[in-house]
Design goal:
Helix content is 76%, strand content 0%. With 233 residues, it is mainly α.
Length: 233
Amino acid sequence: MATRLARKLLASSSLVSSSSLITRSTVEISSPLVSHGGSRLRWSSSSSSSSAPTASNSSSSKREKKITDRLSAVIDAVNDRKLPPELRGQRNAVRSETDIINVVEQRIWHSMEEGQFENLPGKGKPLNLDTNPHADPAEDTLYRILSKNGCAPEWVELNKEIRSKVSEWRVALKIAWTSKCNGDHVEWIERCEALKMQLRDINDKVFRYNLIVPFGRQMFGLKWEKEVARLEE
């Protein structure tokens, strides 16, 4: 009787232990599923949150593209209006400025053939150079006053002075170079110092001239190495 009771107790304890193992294993197996499920929920939530900025970015890019297209259309229209009437509407066919120049030349020749340049006012008479229609009225008046009094603008006088000094300086440099070629290196060195000082003075005048001269009439200064290289040739 005692042995039966002991066997029953052992059997019941083994069942309890096995059931506890089963429940523990099921918990361990189910817990990753729960964690995976949580990660899925988190991933789905993140994907849903990231989809909103993507949609807004695409809409903003479309809006920017539309604005860019409209601006490019306006620029094309403005550039098209700059073309002669013969070339408007076919901007892709215009390859260079040569095409526009050809159109202008064709117009000139066509006008000459029609005689539009005949019987123009002032034909056969000397040109009136007292006034310059392309110059500023104030400057034009000033230049006429200077011309009547036998004077010239400052930049004209400075231009004459610079050219005179440059020619004299080059003659002196040639004389010094001749002395060097004859073997008198001491005289060459002494003259070089004086010539370089004169060169700086000329370049200062050139710099001042370029500041006051009308646009397009500027000149370059002198360079010692370049002037010496001209003599070596």
